[in-house]
Structures are given as C-alpha cells and as structure tokens.
Amino acid sequence: MRRLILVLLFFSALWAEDFMLGHQFKDENFYFPPIPAQMTQAEFDLLSQDSGLKEMLYAAVVPGYMHFVAQEETVGYVLLGTRLASYTTMIASYAIASNELSQLSGSTKVAFDVALLVAVGSYLFDYIAGEYTLNAKQNALRYHYGKTASTLSFDGNRLSFSHTF
Known about the structure:
6 helices
C-alpha cells in the first residue's frame, strides 16, 4: 500500500503543471485591450513584471536582480559589486584561516562575519527595496495611463485597461 501511494505521488508530481505558492494574478490567455500609442516598450515591460517566490530566489543567486527588473541599473550594479566584494572577503578570510591550519579566529573571524552580514544585508535590500521600487513604478505608470484610458475606446464587455496589468 505504501509503494502504491508513493508511485501515485510520484506520477502526480510528474503530471503537475505548475507549483505556485502564491495566487497567480496573470493569465496569458485573456483578451488584451489596445496599448496606448504613447506607451514605450520599456514601460510595457515594466508593467508586465511581477514579483514572487521565483524572483526572491533569483535575487538570492543574482546580486541586484530585483533592481535590474525594476530598471534601476545603477543600484543593481552597486549591489552586484557589494555582494561580489563580500563573497571575495569571505573566501579570502577562509583561505587565510585554512593556510594557518586553524579555525577562523581574530581578525579573519571578524572579516568573515562582516562580509556575511554585508552579503545578507545586500540581498535583503535588493529584494525589499527592489520590489518596492518596482511596485511604485508600476503604480505611477498605471496612474499615468489610467488617466488617459478614458480617452481611449475600449469595448465595454472586455477587461478594462486598469485590470490588465
């Protein structure tokens, strides 16, 4: 009986289409109202971004990821350099300690701990501030084009412009 349950769980996991912890707000199969002529490709790309568990994991692996998504390249590159410097410091302090055939102690321990705090802090700043910046930019674009949506002609039985993004 236990084997049957395990086999069924294995095949149900194989046939699973998607594993989403959060609610999926975007459906790619619905009608898209016309995009305003003055909207640029960069603005459209910014509106189509969302943040969730996948982006949180990407931000842990790729330094500055959320700021690059929010089109804040300067902050993204600063976070990239900061996290790479902290990784380099951690590796160097560990290499110094391993050459001395001892555990991390003294100044190498302090350097390792500070570098670890900087790496974790840059990740948290990247995700939290990047998500806030992304949402603020999306809301500004929705407000800007939402004011002009009354001048655009939409079919009444379709989704409104404010609900597409």
